[in-house]
Amino acid sequence: MTTRRSTRRRPGLPTPAAAAAVALIVVGVGAIAVSSTAEPQPLASGYQALADDGSDLDPAAATSNAEGTFDVSRDFDRDLLERQAQQQAQQRDVALGQSGDDAIGDLVEKTQASAAKLKTNQWVLPVAGYRLTARFGQSSSLWATVHTGLDFAAPSGTTIVSVARGTVKEVSYAGAYGNRTVVTLEDGTEIWYCHQSATRVKPGDPVDPGQPIGNVGSTGNVTGPHLHLEVRPGGGSPVDPQVALAEHGVRA
Asked: pLDDT tens-digit profile of 52-62?
């Protein structure tokens, strides 16, 4: 009688092709894991200021911001900063009547006449390197009334300049508005610059378009550093700053 021996088939070793396929799969999985890293969160929005007079607020409480308040990076958009800075400089030159055409023959007289007119009416951007956030007339739980100005979100310390020629009326702490500078223009219009981290002028000082008057900050009731700009014809009720700027040749 012949006895059969039972044999078990041993698993075969992977062929070179199979090993290569496994390696590719491992590499692919690693790549997926790396690429799944969460994208950076976009810049926070909502740099708004309370639009009341803040007379009932405790100044110490008003100037304190919640821990972890978002601040705009100083290099968050360098292209935007350069474009706005150039625009601001050009507007200032026009407002001050500085023109390269003054010495061109018979155009001198026309240029000077045009410059004289623009010198009275031309405004400039109040800051460079900004993003507009809260606009005039918007409503929010952050404000006691509708928003009465235009908010220019910018890094803390950004220079604020006077939008037009005038005289400094007031430099003081103003409750929800924080550190505020009020400039009265030649036609009686008041321009309010609010939430400043520092001021550079004092009451009675004359200012020209583009002249530094302070710095962007987070004083008062804010959710981040920005300039809250208000335009008040005759020192009365506020009007839309964006419209007022456009009427004086400035596109914000």
From this structure: 333 333 333 33
